[in-house]
Structure formats: C-alpha cells, structure tokens
Design brief:
TIM Barrel, 8-stranded parallel beta sheet, 9 helices
Amino acid sequence: MTTIASNLQAVRAAIIDAATGAGRRADEVSLLAVSKTFAQDAVRDAYQAGQTRFAESYVQEALGKISALHDLPIEWHYIGPIQSNKTRAIAENFAWVHSVDRINIAERLSAQRPAHLPPIQVCIQVNISGEGSKSGVSPDQLSILAQAIAKLPGLKLRGLMAIPAPVDNVAAQHLPFAQLRELFNQLNQQGLKLDTLSMGMSHDFAAAIAEGATIVRIGSAIFGQREYP
C-alpha cells in the first residue's frame, strides 16, 4: 500500500468516526481530495486507491493534470479564486465549481459552458469570517446572489462553501460552520433546493461534519505537506 493509499484509508476512517459521533451516516459526507500543487502521479495513486473526486485551485496547473489524466474518469472540482479571463477554461473542464462569489463570474461560467456538457454544479463561496484577504460573498449579500445564480441555465446551484479563519480551539471551529449551515437553511426556506455544504479541511473537518458538511475538502492529510512554488 502506498503512503497516499494509507493516508486515504485513515482519512476515510476519521470521516466515518466524525459522522457517527455526530449522529450522521458516513455516506452523507463525500471526500474531495485537494490535489493542488501535487503532481499527476499523486492523483493517479489516489485514484487507484479508490478516490474519484479531486479539487484544484490553479487553472493552468489543473489543465495540465486534466489532460495528462484524461484516461481516468475523474470528477474535477474547482475551488480557487476565479478571474474573468479564466472562466472559459473552468467552464469547459470542471464538473463542479465551489468558489463562485460574484454574479458576473456566474454569468460568464453559464454562458461559456459547452452545450454538450451538463450544467456546472455550483457552490457559492461565503466569506463567513469576514476576512479582507479571503474571497467570498458577504452573508448579507448572499440571498441576492443565490437567487440570481439559480436562474442561470448553464449552472445548477447546489449549496454553499466557506474557508473559515483557521483556529486551533475545537469549540471555536464549530461556530463558522454552524453559521454557514444557518445561511444554507435560510436559502432553502426561501425556496432554493440546496443540498451541499462544502466545508471542512484537513485540520477542522470533524467540526465541519458535526455541523452538517456534505463535502469535506482534504489535501495535506492525504498527499502530505504542501509546498508552494
């Protein structure tokens, strides 16, 4: 068993434990392997260990991997900031986009989605911690954006995503996830049929699962310490 396969096994077991501890079924939580900055061989190793959903944050890097791994039926997710000049590449190559936070970006993704492909599955990124350095719509503007995105033909609005400010205290980790869940519930009460909460990473996914995460985005716990260029 490779190191990546062993790490995946441990992460899956931890997800089961977290779900069980929260009174949830493990199959309610999907594992998204965050492969940004890691080589295509690492993705292939993870795929051979049973992982089929992978996330990238840098468009050019992602396109290289998607091309090199075209023989594998991988479901690619985009989770990084979105520049206007990158929307076509994202629309043409990704099944999911978790980081939509502006209507002009959503409109471009919708218009540029190839007609032969199904709509892009979309999450709205919410700046739940109010950090100036983070992408994401503010909670008070979320409803307006969500209602507008729900009308776009090339997109299917699935839910919300957040990257809270990192904290070590486990109790404090729960708060932003609970806030995102409440926003999710409010949107559903407004008539939107959302089913996805993309929240929780390697250091805090247990808290996210306890607060209702349906997708956890795990990178370093699977692939090892990330080195940025």
